[in-house]
Amino acid sequence: MIEDIVIYPDERLREVSKKVVEFGSNLKETLDNMYETMMDKSGVGLAGVQIGKLDRILIVNIPRDDKMQYKEDLLEVVNPKILEYSGEILFQEGCLSIPNFYEYVKRYSYIKLQYQDREGRVKEIEANDYLAVALQHEIDHLNGVLFIDKLSILKRKKFEKEYKRQKV
Ligand code: CO
User: Fold this and answer.
1) Ligand 1 mean position, distance from CA 136 (Å)
2) pTM
């Protein structure tokens, strides 16, 4: 089912999501709905809070070189924990919860991530560049952090200005 996206400045986006302890049919349904919702909105990543589920869950589906997203590349991440990180990358980000605003954000270019899959199995993944950036962006959502929080004061002002203009 396609869900409504929680849009900035909705206060739920500032909440810290809760650790998942039950790996049952509710979790699977939520993850399926997140995938449907993300694809419907042409996103590459989505966190639970963005559909109003305050659980530590996120999905990422990075396009390949042909710009297409393949479901076999879909990564479902539950209870993520960054074990290692290094490097620096400047990447232009957007967010389905902050429509029509894109800006460059500095992130780690490499992360090693521990997480659980939808069955509760513990996994590890190493991610670079685009995938590393997307994972960090979504993990931030689980802690109530948005990419606009990472901007310089100048760029943040530019956002506030554009946001006000959009609202009018
Ligand atoms: Co986002």
Assistant:
1) 10
2) 0.97
